[in-house]
Amino acid sequence: MPRCALLRALLLAGLLGPSLASGQSGGCAQALLTELGWRIDVADIAEPVVHGGPVCERADLAQAQAAGDLRVQIPARWSDAQRDSVLQDLFEDPATVCAYAFPLGQAARRAATRLEANDGFRFSALQLGWIGFGARGAQAQGWAGFRSFGRGYQPAAGNSAALDAFYTGRVRAECGVGRQVAQLATQRELYGDAAFDAEFAPGELSIGTFLTLHQTDSILLGRHAGRFFADGKARRTAQRGRQAFVGAPGFIEHVFDRQYLDDINNQAENFMVVDVGDAAARALRTHGGFAHYDAVNRRIWTLATQLPGPGPRRFERLLIERDPIARREVPEEKRALLAELDALLDDPFYREFLIYVHPRGIRPIGFHVARLLDRNPRTPFAIELGLHNLHTTLYRRWIDARLRQCAAGVPAPHTNSQAEQR
């Protein structure tokens, strides 16, 4: 068994403890912490002084460091073992998890941008199977099916090569698969191709129906997902700050029963968070997460039902594009309703909370709220974060992988330059 595969098997079986799992000296730990933004100093003090700071609230690492975040002082008289213990503890510090959210967010934006740019990655209500790889078939595009009717696939000959099918190939899938692919592509961009191919077994990158994933080794929802973070209405995430959202999965779902749906193919929209503006993050914190905006969505829907007029993209044109022709057609007695709708959708959350939804690409969440008024006008919609392990299992796997690479003398992957060259 190759060394990386053996280490992965031992880790997943729980046969290596945290220190042996990383298998590193303090030099590698310090190098990785420094890369993540920590400033590590030695001082004539009796006990360590750690100041992580509200890193998840910052726009980027430069802003965090300028604000004095991510600083640690270690007593000069301490032994190497004592110093190493402090450094290992820093990997569990919430500030380090937020510092990791910066490269994670960059990876999420690269992945979403590349998926959005592929016109061959489409969504069709009529396709052969849950995922359709077209005339060339799944094998030709790097995937092997393991469930009938296109309900389950895993990489057949290399993880990165398989994901290239969604970057440059021709594939049809609904938005749930689009979300899965965006999450996996984020890990690819975070690791770099070589490490992504080495660190994950094919079954860990399974795609298909959500029920299928639970029966696989999927790192998203299956046996290898590890410890989940459940925060459906984003109460805790909102308190942590903007970077805590980035890369997280979620969905926009109809509130009323299915009998009130007019377009079954738009009964929900699965998304991955791509970016959150400062004003949007402050609004979410002030209001305690998504529950407040579910109520606002209900108010938007109530007002929209009172606005007359035909057209398949009426509310998208009226409320998002603010098309002057469409707005002139609103009767004078309804202009106050339109003004209230404008004010509600001008909330920073609707404008600065950016999500990737296949096949719509990267858009503010307000776009989707208005679009669903057109598609399913008889029900309001609510917003949820999905279960995820970005800051638990996947975070620790990335840390351990980087520490192993350092111990083996493997240079850090240059994911930005790789993305530019591909």
Secondary structure elements and pairings:
Blueprint: H1 3-13, H2 18-22, H3 26-36, E1 39-43, E2 49-51, H4 61-66, E3 71-75, H5 80-90, H6 94-117, E4 121-122, E5 131-132, H7 137-140, E6 143-147, E7 152-155, H8 159-168, E8 171-173, H9 175-191, H10 193-199, E9 207-208, H11 210-213, H12 235-240, E10 249-254, E11 268-276, H13 278-287, H14 290-304, H15 314-321, H16 324-328, H17 335-345, H18 348-352, E12 353-357, E13 361-364, H19 365-375, E14 381-385, H20 393-407, H21 415-421
Helix pairs in contact: 3-5, 6-9, 8-9, 9-10, 14-17, 15-19
Rounded mean pLDDT score: 91
What level of helicity do the residues show?
40-55%
The separation of the N and C termini measures: 30 Å
Instruction: Give the helix tally.
Output: 21
Global structural class: alpha+beta
Low-confidence stretches are 1-24, 416-422
Describe this structure in words.
- Strands 13-12-11-10-14 form a five-stranded antiparallel β-sheet, with helices on both faces. Strands 1-3-2 form a three-stranded mixed β-sheet. The chain has a three-stranded mixed β-sheet with strand order 4-8-5.
- The two termini are 30 Å apart.
- The protein has helices spanning 3-13, 18-22, 26-36, 61-66, 80-90, 94-117, 137-140, 159-168, 175-191, 193-199, 210-213, 235-240, 278-287, 290-304, 314-321, 324-328, 335-345, 348-352, 365-375, 393-407, 415-421; strands spanning 39-43, 49-51, 71-75, 121-122, 131-132, 143-147, 152-155, 171-173, 207-208, 249-254, 268-276, 353-357, 361-364, 381-385.
- The protein is α+β, with helices and mostly antiparallel strands.
- The protein is built from 21 helices and 14 strands.
- The longest helix is centred in the N-terminal third of the chain and has 24 residues, at 94-117.
